[in-house]
Amino acid sequence: MTEIQQPPLNWEASATATHPQISSSLPPEVETCLKNARFLHLATCDALYPHVSLMNYTYLPSTPYDANPVIIMTTNPSSKKTLNLINNPRVSLLVHDWVSHRPPTRVPDPTRESSPPPQATRSSLASLLLNINTSALSSISATINGTARMLERGSEEETWCKDRHLENNTFGDQIREEQGLFGAAQNPASTEGDGGASCFIEGEEVRVMLVGVREGRIADWKGGVKDWVIVPPQEEGRRGREIMANGIS
């Protein structure tokens, strides 16, 4: 049997600005990724070590309080990430459009346990879902750098953002489907209503934070890198000319 030839991977120097893109709007592939991904990775940092958290989130192109794209998240006030944010509000976010399940390797590893569990492989639908990342969708990851802002407790902005976040994270039906698909026992207490999402959003002590989407980097599955920055429309042409002249933003 003829071996399938895979497209060659590559890499490029990317320690500085790489293929910078200046625009008054978010790159379409980043916006699509933010609209469709279920989770993102939030990186915070104290004085010494970075800390990464898997987060539910809500992406909005604008709000009544901010004309620019924002990402809404909620956090436990006594969590590690919250303590980090109090001392250092700078954050980095990672969102991607491929399934994170690791596909089979060329050399089987007998010590490696499958995830999801073996029951999932008994379904043709499950097999399709587990291998979907081998069909090169757009296959990008987007890193977003910014500053997190904790919204004032009880403010109109906090109430509005919390409501939008709850509307966007009610995965009750999907959670029930996944539990059945992967052979997990269903707990009635955890499958009612919104699938338990509200307890992470509506709790009295939960803090709402916003990250403005202003700049970041796109990396594709072949190693290509592109930096992007969002600027006001009146600055778009000037910033672009500066990059052409200087080679940096």
H/E order of the elements? EHEEEEHEHEHHEEEH
Mean pLDDT: 75
How does the major sheet shape up? 10 strands, mixed
Radius of gyration: 21 Å
Note the total helix count.
Answer: 6
Q: What is the end-to-end distance?
A: 50 Å
Tag the structure with descriptive keywords:
249 residues; alpha+beta; ten-stranded mixed sheet; 10 strands; globular; disordered C terminus
Map the helices and strands:
Layout: E1 21-23, H1 28-36, E2 39-45, E3 50-56, E4 58-60, E5 70-75, H2 80-87, E6 90-96, H3 124-130, E7 140-150, H4 156-168, H5 172-181, E8 207-212, E9 215-220, E10 225-230, H6 233-246
Parallel strand pairs: 1-10
Antiparallel strand pairs: 2-3, 2-6, 4-5, 5-8, 6-7, 7-8, 7-9, 9-10
Can you walk through the features of this model?
This protein has 249 residues and is of the alpha+beta class. Helix content is 24%, strand content 25%. The protein has six helices and ten strands, in the order E-H-E-E-E-E-H-E-H-E-H-H-E-E-E-H. Strands 1, 2, 3, 4, 5, 6, 7, 8, 9 and 10 form a ten-stranded mixed beta sheet that branches. It is globular. The termini are far apart.
